[in-house]
Specification:
- Helix 1 (7-31) runs antiparallel to helix 2 (36-57).
- The chain is an all-alpha fold.
- The protein contains two helices and no strands.
């Protein structure tokens, strides 16, 4: 279960939306061959955001 509520849930949701937006934009930059390095960096940031959210919501043995 997610600890707390309200702002914490909002922040996690916002992080996931930002991660998906960054991943989509990064793929678009790579596919259109505009800026490969920036596209890879955007995908990398989205992976880091997703992993951070997973760390926060992963159930613990309590």
């Amino acid at each position: 279960m997610i600890l707390g509520g309200g702002f914490f849930s909002f922040a996690l949701s916002l992080a996931m939306l930002a991660a998906f937006a960054l991943a989509i934009a990064g793929v678009m930059l790579i596919v259109k061959k505009k800026d490969r390095q920036r596209g890879l960096l955007m995908i990398g940031v989205s992976v880091v955001l997703i992993l951070n959210v997973l760390i926060w919501v992963w159930p613990t043995s309590a």
